[in-house]
Design goal:
about 220 residues
Length: about 220
């Protein structure tokens, strides 16, 4: 597994400058939209990195090479899911830090309490897991090129929803999850359970897809 992680890191090494430039654009474009929008944008941007990894794998026939080594298809799939989660966490942390730094510097009027930061980070992570659970099996099944329309929809819909809700003055819905209402806590646990089931099912579906593919 260590070798698979190193392979993913090295393959994405050239994306560092592009991601930094994209983060700067996001900071300038969404500085007054609040932390929820900022973290959402950063998380989506970093999670999409796994698409570049899948595209490179297709281009260089990576699976054909990998399967000649002592690596199982389960491990190949697991490495994709784990690196996707790491990308999502990097995006969440980068989004929160950028938003807080801009607030401290007076470049953004948007503020967030500690509870708000935790709520935003938690929901962004759940959204990323949902994104990953849909994205990886579809790409493994149909390939990167055929899955681009789905990627556009998955990226556009959550971003559009958050932007519209924020622009019309509606509080980011998941902020209520951390209130004192018991029903709100129930929503949190249900959301976590649903996403856990989806990501687990997605993993086993991806393994099954990869097992049936011939390289």
């Amino acid at each position: 597994m260590k070798g698979l992680f190193l392979k993913e890191i090295y393959s994405m090494k050239g994306m560092g400058k592009s991601m930094l430039f994209l983060f700067i654009i996001f900071c300038l474009a969404f500085k007054d939209q609040g932390m929820a929008v900022m973290v959402t944008m950063f998380t989506v941007a970093t999670t999409v990195l796994v698409i570049n990894s899948l595209a490179l794998d297709e281009m260089h026939n990576w699976y054909r090479i990998a399967l000649t080594m002592p690596v199982s298809r389960h491990q190949l799939v697991l490495s994709k899911y784990l690196i996707s989660v790491i990308y999502a966490l990097v995006g969440i942390i980068a989004g929160i830090c950028s938003s807080l730094l801009m607030q401290a510097a007076g470049w953004s009027a948007a503020e967030a309490s500690l509870v708000g930061v935790i709520a935003i980070a938690s929901v962004a992570f759940l959204m990323a897991l949902l994104f990953i659970s849909l994205l990886l099996p579809v790409n493994l099944k149909f390939g990167v090129q055929k899955s681009r329309l789905l990627l556009l929809a998955l990226v556009a819909l959550p971003v559009l929803a958050v932007t519209v809700l924020t622009s019309i003055g509606i509080v980011f819905p998941v902020m209520f999850y951390f209130g004192v209402n018991l029903s709100s806590h129930a929503i949190v646990f249900i959301s976590i359970a649903v996403v856990a089931v989806l990501i687990t099912g997605s993993y086993f579906l991806s393994v099954r897809i990869l097992k049936k593919k011939e390289f």
